[in-house]
């Protein structure tokens, strides 16, 4: 005949669940911190790219379209505000803001 777990077995199972929960929280925190670091690096690289190719972005409509398509795919909207970073960097915010209105 099989014996059911007693109080000790229940306490051991609860302790194991707590350890797994803590381990899961630690892994989630590490992944979140790593993702934030990667996003910050990507943003700085994107800003450098925009600085280097500012004239090309402003003058070449095909290149500007590709740049905005790339930004949209990664969730960066350089046209979101006419007073934002991208407007200062590229100098296109006011025009597109008015165009949107």
TrEMBL record:
One of its GO terms (biological process) is protein transport to vacuole involved in ubiquitin-dependent protein catabolic process via the multivesicular body sorting pathway. GO terms for cellular component: ESCRT II complex. InterPro entries: ESCRT-2_cplx_Snf8, Snf8/Vps36, WH_DNA-bd_sf. This is Vacuolar protein sorting-associated protein. It comes from Arachis hypogaea (Peanut).
